[in-house]
Amino acid sequence: MDIEAPGEAKELPKIHRLDESVVNRIAAGEVIQRPVSAVKELVENSLDASSTSISVVVKDGGLKLIQVSDDGHGIRHEDLPILCERHTTSKLSKYEDLQSIKSMGFRGEALASMTYVGHVTVTTITKGQLHGYRVSYRDGLMEHEPKACAAVKGTQIMVENLFYNMIARRKTLQNSADDYTKIVDLLSRFAIHHIDVSFSCRKHGAARADVHSVATSSRLDAIRSVYGLSVARNLIKIEASDNDPSSSVFEMDGFISNSNYVVKKTTMVLFINDRLVECTALKRALEIVYSATLPKASKPFIYMSIILPPEHVDVNVHPTKREVSLLNQEVIIEKIQSVVESMLRNSNESRTFQEQTVESSPSVPSITNNESHLNPSPSGSKSQKVPVHKMVRTDSSDPAGRLHAYLYKKPQNHLEMNSSLTAVRSSVRQRRNLRETADLTSIQELINDIDSKCHSGLLDIVRQCTYVGMADDVFALLQHNTHLYLANVVNLSKELMYQQVLRRFAHFNAIQLSESAPLQELLMLALKEEELDLECNENDDLKMKIAEMNTQLLKQKAEMLEEYFCIFIDSDGNLSRLPILLDQYTPDMDRVPEFLLCLGNDVDWEDEKNCFQSLAAALGNFYAMHPPLLPHPSGEGLEFYRKRKHGKNPQDVGKSSCDIGDDIEIEDEFEHKLLSEAETAWGQREWSIQHVLFPSMRLFLKPPTSMAVNGTFVRVASLEKLYRIFERC
Ligand code: ADP
Ligand code: MG
C-alpha cells in the first residue's frame, strides 16, 4: 500500500555520491588556491629532496606555466606510476610520525592536486642512472608510460594551464596580475632562510632573474642580495631562547630593522622549524613594540627563525600548512616581544653615533649592537620554575583571562636606562637641527624625575602581572605571582599617558578630527558644565569673555602646541588634530571641552619646565581611560536607559486583563539607541584596557612611588592562603 503522494517524493532532495573526479577537483582547489601555492608546494618538495639549487620559471602569473627545476635526489622510476595519486608520500607512514615530522610535505596531496587542476609533466633522474624519465599526469594518473629522456641531475616539474577546468577561479586570477609578485616574494623568503641553497625566479623568456641568490654562509649577505642594501644595513641581530618545560622551550634567532629603517608596510619572514609560516599574533605583537618604541612609528622588517621540539608544533591545522599551532604560543610571543623591545631601545641609543660614523662608509652593514650582547638580556635570564602548588589557571577557553604560571625577572639596569634617555634626547635634538637644544633640558629633567620616582616593586607588578578582568568601573583585577591586586585603571592610564607625552615629545603621529572643532564653542560648553558642577552662577557674557580670552591665548600658543604636542589649532581658532599617545587608542572626544579649558586655566605658560609638565598632565587626564559618561548598561545602571513613561501611564489604568502581557513587554522597553551607544562605549573601553593599556603599561610605565600609597594598587588576596582555605573544604 503506497500512502505517499508521488509528487511529494520527487520534491525531497535526493542524496547521491559525488563523482570522484568532482571530489578531487574540489579538494585540489583547496590545496592549490592560486599559482603561488603551487610554487610553494613544488619548492618545498625540492627542498625535501636535498636540493642545493632551485630555479623557477613562470608564465602569465603562473596560469600558463610554472616550472620548478632542482638538483635533488630525484624520483625512482618505480614510484612514477603512483607519484601523483592522492595520499602518496615518501615522508610519512604512521600517524605518530606526524609528531616528529621534519620534512615540509607529508600529506601526499600537492602533486595529486595539481594534476586535477592543471597539466603536470615530471622529468627526473636518480643517482647512478644513465638517463632520466619524463611522464605527464592528469587527474592523478599517468597519461602514458614514462619515456626515457636526457636529463640533468634532479627533478623538473612543469604545471601548465592551471585551473583550466575551474573557469571562475581562472577568471578572477586572470584579472589580478599580482601573482608573479607573490611568487617573487615567496622565493625571496625561502632564499634568506635556506642560505645554503641558491634560488632563482624569472618570467618565462626573460633574461634577467627577479630573485637570484647564491648559496652563502652569511644570512646578512643573503638578505642583502635579496632585499637590498637599504634593508641589510639597517638590521639588528636578535636571539632568544628558553628551555624550561614549565613555561616554554624554544630557540629563536633572526634580524630586525632598526630605527633608521622607515617603511609603511611590515615584512615578516617567519620560519618555524624551517617551515615558512604565518603567525598573525606574533606579527601584531612586534608591530606594537615598533610603533611604541621608535620615535618615528615605522613598520618593521623582520626575519625570524624559531626552533621548537617537533612535538610542540601542530603542522596539520591548515589545508595549505600555512599556519601552525604551537604549544605555549602566548609565552613564547611575550618573550620574543620583550627581547625585540630591549634590542630596539638599545638600537635607538646607538642611532646618533651610528649615523655619524657610518655616513662616510655606507657599505658597512650597520649592526651596531654587538656590545649590547654584553648587557644582561631577558633571554639570558632563566625562568624560575614555579612550584606546582603555586600554579594558577583560569578558564583556558578565555585566553584573555588566562593566568600565566611563570615568572621571570627582567634585569634592572639603570645605566641602560640613563643612556637610552640620552639617546632619546640626542635623536630629538638631531631632528630639531640643534636649533632649540636648550628647550629639551626641561623634558630631560621631567623624564629623569619619572625614573627617579619609579617604585621597583610596583614596576615588577606592572611588568609581570596578568590582567584578569574589570572588577568594577574603575578597578581592574590583576594577578601577580600568588597575589591578587585591584588596580585603579584611571590613575594608571593617566600616569601612562603623561609619561608617553614626555617620551614621545615632538614626535607624535596625529589623530585627524573628522570635523575641525571651534575652540570658542567648546570652551563655552566646558564653562557651562563647570558651572553646573560648581553650582556657581556667572552670567553668559562673562563666560563668553573667558572663552574668548582662552581662545586667543591658545591661538597664540598654536605653533608650540603643534610642534611639540601635535595639537593643531588653525588661525580661525579651530582644533583639527590631536596627538596619538598610544597606538590603537583615541581619547573620549566628549572630554575635549574640559581639556581645552584645562589648557587655558591650568597650564603654566611662563616657565618652560612647568609648562611642559602641566601640558603633559592635561593631556594625560584627557586621554586617561575614565569611565564613559553614560552609566554602565548593566545592574543598577540599566535603570538609566529604561523608558520613563512605562507602566505608570494614566491611560494604562483600567486596561483589561488581556493587556497585562503587553504591559510586561512595555516594562522592558529601553532607549535602545542610547543603550547601544553605552554598550559600545563601555565595550570599547574594556577592549582598550585589556589590549592597549595593559600591554603598553608592561612596556612603558614607570609607576611612581606615590601609587604605592594612594590606593592605586590594593592587594586583595593571597592565592596561597586561598588554597589553604580550599584544601580544608
Ligand atoms: P608530500 O610532499 O606531502 O609527500 P607531494 O604530493 O608534494 O606530497 O609529493 C609526493 C612525493 O613525490 C613526495 O613524497 C616525494 O617522494 C616525491 N617528490 C615530489 N617532488 C619531488 C622532487 N622535486 N624531488 C624528489 N622527489 C619528489
Ligand atoms: Mg610536497
From TrEMBL:
One of its GO terms (biological process) is mismatch repair. Residues 223-345 form the DNA mismatch repair protein S5 domain. It holds the Pfam family DNA_mis_repair. Its main location: nucleus. GO terms for molecular function: ATP binding; ATP hydrolysis activity; ATP-dependent DNA damage sensor activity; mismatched DNA binding. Residues 525-559 form a coiled coil. One of its GO terms (cellular component) is nucleus. Keywords: Coiled coil, DNA damage, DNA repair, Nucleus. Residues 347-384 have a biased composition (Polar residues). It is found in: Nucleus. Gene3D superfamilies: 3.30.230.10, Histidine kinase-like ATPase, C-terminal domain. InterPro entries: DNA_mismatch_repair_CS, DNA_mismatch_S5_2-like, HATPase_C_sf, Mlh1_C, MutL/Mlh/PMS, MutL/Mlh/Pms-like, Ribosomal_Su5_D2-typ_SF, Ribsml_uS5_D2-typ_fold_subgr. Residues 347-389 are annotated as: Disordered. PANTHER family: DNA MISMATCH REPAIR PROTEIN MLH, PMS, MUTL (PTHR10073), DNA MISMATCH REPAIR PROTEIN MLH1 (PTHR10073:SF12). Belongs to the DNA mismatch repair MutL/HexB family. This is DNA mismatch repair protein MLH1 isoform X1.
